[in-house]
Amino acid sequence: MQYKKYIIMKKYTRWIGLGLIILLFILQFFQINKTNPKVKPEEDFLAINKTEASTAKLIKDACYDCHSYETKYPFYTYVVPLSWWINNHIVNGRKEMNFSIWATYSAKKADHKLVESAEMVLEKKMPLKSYLIAHSEAKLSPEQQKQLSDYFNSLRTSGSEKADSGAKNEKQEDEEDEE
User: Fold this and answer.
1) Sign of torsion, CA 12 18 21 23?
2) Comparison of pLDDT for 164 and 70, the residue scoring more
3) Which of 47, 51, 44 is nearest to 68 (CA)?
4) Burial category of 114 from C-beta neighbours within 10 Å (exposed 0-12, middle 13-18, buried 19 and up)
5) What CA–CA distance (Å, rounded) separates 94 from 141?
6) Which helix (H) or strand (E) holds 144?
7) Mean pLDDT value across the chain
8) Model confidence at 145: pLDDT above 90
9) Angle at CA 49, nearest 5°, toward 141 and 142?
10) In this structure, what are the phi and psi dihedrals at residue 33, rounded to the nearest 5 degrees?
11) Could you read off the pLDDT of 24-73 as tens digits, one per residue?
């Protein structure tokens, strides 16, 4: 009796396994869109802020795959359903913050994104641990985390000063126009 149950289970297991293999094969025909929108250099975070090369490399390695239009799709993004999971991270990352369209952000929004970025890097929430598994170049040392956090905060301060001086210049121009 036990032997018959074993044979039946083995038969069902074989069919279930074959069904899963066929399903995975069929799913491979439903690939994600891997085309990146065109990048406008005049809107890009690194270009706008004239970021020095070493800091720019850190940001590109740790952030740009999910938070810009410069995503590099590795070979494993051709494997469904893994590619769907990765694409979800990219879509959500770009929605949360996109370095490629930085110039389109209001000063207030950009300031908020800089604060968030500095915090996320220092708290080791970014880059995601799942991303680091396949991207060792994105792993940041404590010194690099501090470097990025300090850089984001320095832009925030200088950005606020620029906004304040811009507001003062506008007031001065308005006063001159009234005279």
Assistant:
1) negative
2) 70
3) 44
4) buried
5) 24
6) helix 142-178
7) 87
8) yes
9) 10
10) -80, 120
11) 999 999 999 999 999 999 999 999 999 999 999 999 999 999 999 999 99
